[in-house]
Design a protein that fits this description.
- The chain has 202 residues and is α+β, with helices and mostly antiparallel strands.
- The chain has 6 helices and 8 strands, in the order ββββααββααβαβα.
- A hairpin with a 2-residue loop joins β5 and β6.
- α3 runs antiparallel to α4.
- The chain starts with a strand and ends in a 5-residue tail after the last helix.
Length: 202
Amino acid sequence: MRVRIIPKETEMTDQIETIPTSLLFEGKPIAIVTFEDGGVPYFALDDLCDAIGWSKEVAAAKVQSYLFPAHGKRIAQEATEDGIVNVTVLSPVGVFYLADLIDAPKGQRLTAWAKREARKLCPNASESDPAMFLTLSPGRRRPPRPMRYSGWLAEWLVLKATTNALGAHNPGRELQELALERAWEARAEQLKAAREAKGEVA
């Protein structure tokens, strides 16, 4: 039997509720959890997948991708019949990125719902909180442009108009930059190994 998901940093006790804290998305339950450092609700990844029909394996891979922002995910814990297990949970912004990486058109209903429910549960969240609001990446790139009915387009347009970004999120270009960076790292390692083989000081 599934029981309540709690933040990982919270101490587990024997008095865990047998009814999960959850919300309904189109009649399907999605467990949520909040952390003490902001109160932003996070949504259980597996429940999101079940609710919209996405592969859990594909979703888990996308969340671990370098394209997925760190502020979009956290780890909570869940007590099950088999013991305590780690559970990946996504912030409202994380739900948006997940949909963009898997199927943005289909995910519009889910992203709009997650944003709406999160704003109800945490109405006083700081606008600088990247888990709750769209923000520029550390490299000053904008998030991907949201779909029309995703619930995020208006916020994205404001971000575009009020920030000095380098450009929109471009996975293809970022992959090229990452490949080039790794090639240079590999070359540096080869040169270092060659110098060491010759007895030179690295």
